[in-house]
Amino acid sequence: MDYAKRIAQLRTEVERHDHAYYVLDKPIIPDAEYDKLFRELQSLETRHPELLTADSPTQRVGGRVLDGFAPVRHAVAMLSIRTETDTTEGGAQAFDVRVRKELGLRDADAGVEYACELKFDGLAINLRYERGVLVQAATRGDGETGEDVTQNIRTIHQIPLRLHGCGAAVLEVRGEVYMSRGDFERYNEKQRAQGLPALVNPRNGAAGSIRQLDPALAAKRPLSFFAYGLGEVQGWAIPATHSAVLDALQMMVCR
Question: Which of 97, 155, 227, 238 has its CA 20 to 30 A from that of 138?
Fold first, then answer.
């Protein structure tokens, strides 16, 4: 058997099913069939460790318990976003006036096109990909220095370990790790049924999960991820608009 070829086939299959299940919420095969593929991949990688790579789906399984989190200096500062409290029509108009002023636009100039997104309340994360492979994940911290939480981030199936079609020397993707209300409530129901402690709220649940020293515990939490921006970029032509950036990132996710 060509073990390298079989391992590559299995990785592609497992990635495809992970994307269908965790991102699209449309599983293709029964769990038992998925488990069979995953176990075969684990077995082959164990028998042939020279073929194991950092972007293999098997590397999502929680690793060793950490002593602490190493500091990470951000190449591009993770700045905070100004909070708008006026949610009325007047508040939106005032925001537009400020934007046009900063852009130096006159009243006669064309209107500004906006990209609107939901505000997720979780934990800001910087994902660093080198040649398309996830090599590090760090929290925002104070904006200049965060913490290395790579092992815990690897357990989140919505976050790709490899970006398809991305040959950039460096591409940092920034976004929010969060826990949806539905996932939060279902998790707490299971915890209470087993007589175990429940999470206080989704935000604390997400942040606390990522800062667990035991990745195996983080892997048990129903976490999601939403990408909203970029950090350091080397060797990639950044699209002209924010929406185009998000579209380009979406195309790099396993489909």
Answer: 238
